[in-house]
Amino acid sequence: MTKILAISGSLRRASFNTALARAFAAHAPAGTTVEVATLHGIPLYDGDLEAAEGIPPAVAALAAQIAAADGLILSTPEYNNGMPGVFKNAIDWLSRGGVAGGKLFAGKPVALAGASPGGFGTILSQAHWLQVLRALGMRHWSEGRLMVSRAGKVFDGEGALLDGEVAAQLGPYVAGFTAFIGK
Ligand SMILES: Cc1cc2nc3c(=O)[nH]c(=O)nc-3n(C[C@H](O)[C@H](O)[C@H](O)COP(=O)(O)O)c2cc1C
C-alpha cells in the first residue's frame, strides 16, 4: 500500500485546492491511499516563538502526517504569480531543526498540482515551488503536473468535481506518482 498525503495550500472553506486534494483521494487507484491535510492552526513563523515554545502543536501534527506518508502532493493556489505565503509559511516551520532534525522533507517524493479560477491553472506558482523543493532536498516528480484552470466551472460550491476531463486525469496522475514513489 502506498500512502500519499495531499496538502492543500489554502485555508478557505470553499477552496478549489482543498477540493482538488479531496478529488485525488476519491480517484486514488487500488493499492494507494490519499489522505488530505490542511494548514489550519499553523501560526506565522516567528523565531522568538520557536525559541520560547518550540514547534507549535499544529506544525508537529502535520509533520507526523508527512513522516507517515510515502509521498506528498502539494495542491497549491497561485497568488500574484507565486506560491501563497500561508503555504510557504507552513513549509518553513516544517523545515526547522525541531522537526525531524530538519530532515523531514529530505528525499521525500513530491508532486505539484493546483487549481485556479483563471486560465493558467497555477503554472507560475508550481514553477515557484521548484526552488523550494530543491532547497528541501525533495524528490520531485517532474513528469506529472496537474493544472486545473477555470476552477469555478470544474468544482461546484461544495467542492464536488463536475468536470469529466479533469476527473479522467486524476487516477492516472495518482497512479503515475505512485509508480515514481516506488522507483
Ligand atoms: C492575493 C491573491 C492573489 C492572487 N493572484 C493570482 C494569480 O497570480 N494567479 C491566479 O491564477 N489566481 C490568483 N488569485 C486567485 C486565486 O487563484 C483564487 O483566489 C483561488 O480561488 C485561490 O485558491 P483556493 O480556491 O484554493 O483558495 C489570487 C488571489 C489572491 C487572494
Task: Briefly say what this structure is.
The protein has helices at 16-26, 47-53, 57-68, 85-94, 123-136, 151-154, 164-182, and strands spanning 2-8, 32-37, 71-75, 109-115, 139-148. With 183 residues, it is of the alpha/beta class.
Can you put this structure into words, describing what you see?
The chain has helices at 16-26, 47-53, 57-68, 85-94, 123-136, 151-154, 164-182, and strands at 2-8, 32-37, 71-75, 109-115, 139-148. With 183 residues, the protein is of the alpha/beta class. The protein has one domain: Rossmann fold (3-Layer(aba) Sandwich). The model has no long low-confidence stretch (mean pLDDT 98). The longest helix has 19 residues, at 164-182. The chain has a five-stranded parallel sheet, with helices on both faces. The protein starts with a strand and ends with a helix. Strand 1 (2-8), helix 1 (16-26) and strand 2 form a beta-alpha-beta unit. Flavin mononucleotide is lined by residues 10, 12, 15-17, 77-81, 116-118, 120.
